[in-house]
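Work through what follows:
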Amino acid sequence: MSLDGHLDDTTPTRLLLSDAEDFDRVDALRAASDAVMVGAETIRRDDPRLLVNDPERRAERVRRGLPEYPVKVTVTGTGALDAGARFFTTGGDKLVYCADLAVPAQAERLRGAPRTEVVPAGELVDFPGILADLSRRGIERLMVEGGGSLHTRFLAEDLADEIHLAIAPFFVGDDQAPRFVRAAEFPQNAQRRMTLAETRAIGDLVFVRYVITR
């Protein structure tokens, strides 16, 4: 995020907050995860592939008996996702957790998307239920990449174990730009502080890792 807490600006072009070294850190974290999750708005706005880019990391996953790529996961309340998005046209297995009423329409929209399953996730999208279903599917380590609404749900509902945050040395300065989190009642507050586990410089960014204790 930027120094003032933004993930992007409001221009049509994606704002690059990270440098090559930090993108490589993210690639390594993806390679070490069983699944990678982003929100539906991130797919619509950024059109991410969410792949492991380094061929040696992919080969190491295969040597360990894992699929070449982590499972890709998204969550949507409306079901308005396009099968042509790179999320669906690249990589391996994909799971789309969808509000119950939107499942039929979303399944129809994604009929041609390879290796994609649409899963009902409750009337209002039940995040603990999603995590329980992922666990039943063998997903032990889930990387939640964003965006802000997804970060907010995981943190406000106390579902995250760690926060990995890279801070870029500039400001966005636009209250309408997407933020790391939105307004919510967070259990990680002044009375329940997180534990600082790691800090280091990555180029001109600062990387911090917080562990959420319970």
